[in-house]
Amino acid sequence: TGLEVSLAVLNTYTCDWISKYYSPAVESAVHSVLGQKCRVRITVDPEATVPPAPAPRESRPPLDSGPSAGAPPALAPGAGLLWNSDVVLNHKYTFENFVVGPCNRFAHAAAVGSGERPGKNYNPFFLHGRVGVGKTHLLQALCFSILERDPSARILYLSCETFVNHFISALENGDLDGFRTKYRNVDVLVVDDIHILANKERTQEEFFHTFNTLYQAGKQLVLSSDSPPKDIPTLQERLVSRFRWGMVTEIEPPCYETRMAIVKRKSRDQGRELPDTVAQLIAEQIDQNVRELEGAVTRLLGFSSLTGKPLTLELAREALGDLLQANHGAPTMDDIISAVTSKYGVKLSELQSKRRTKSITHPRQVAMFLARRITRHSLEEVGGFFGGRDHSTVIYAVDRVSKAVRSDPEVRKQVEGLLGRLGAPSDGRL
Ligand code: ADP
Ligand code: MG
Questions:
Q1: Is the CB of 132 under 6 A from ligand 1?
Q2: Verdict on whether the full-model pTM lies above 0.70
């Protein structure tokens, strides 16, 4: 017979692989659905669009694409993300595997809440925090929980970079319509690391329209970023305000108790129990980044099983030497105070006093800003250092300095100089 089914895949690698190993399986699957034999043709189409959303779910055909729709099924085998997402969900990134502590309790609860009623509870859901604190983990856990309730939910999960690249190539090819169909025909749009939109005016413009279309249709938007919306450089005010419409929540670096719990959990997951002293050493010294914490546990366990040595403090120091030292040198509150007092020619007692003259308030605010940026001290702790000020004063100070850094080149220079001196250069991002 002349019937032919054509399947589009994203790249030649996939095309070759499927043709080579899965042709018979695909052909027999097609045969069993259509009840007749037909030729299966695999084609490459990096810009293939998502088939339009089926209207009522009940009347959906067994496969998303009809016999000659030219587009592959929207869902991977079993429930999953839309096929043109740029990640595959990591089965370890679930809510169950996420260790909850004071630093991330709120973010965790908000993610659980968004997953329960996508598009309704918190929209958009905007999660921010430094690198390695668990943003991607929570985003993927949220996707799992949505898919658990509704395996047919159409979730498009992308890194912001992919969004930018697709947009640029759509512009080049004059195919904005195709681009728009792809991004707007989804139930949930997840964009990881949205701060990449910084300084990309034209893509921001397009994202603004994508956002509006999805939002107005009651679809869920989930975004992660390394900083709160207002701190993303040059982010258009209208995007900043939209990102704040729903739930903006921060994951802070984990406190000591949470780090202990994570270390123990990660080693148990790998089938070993760490002695308390060893777990304490790791949790004390690696204090900013969960990915590093996890890496330390894996390295130590690997080291122990390769050498056959027991898990002692000594072995931990040997296996983790460089990791431990690198973190040990992180600037402390004292380092910040001595850098700030010498830079501005003020005394610590003045920073801690109630004086409100500009020559004192400015260095005080800069010091608070630096403390929040490069140490793990909480708002309360930072306020405490500076004469028992409360957390709202610290928030205000950080906000003032963040703004000044963007509007006043002189302040920017001061802050960059201080960051460099403290061994925490800004790399141009403030
Ligand atoms: P981010 O996206 O914020 O840079 P990730 O989500 O990639 O960070 O997290 C880095 C690693 O640390 C991942 O392997 C993740 O599973 C793990 N991780 C982060 N936070 C937690 C947590 N609270 N409990 C368990 N694992 C965590
Ligand atoms: Mg991430």
A1: yes
A2: no
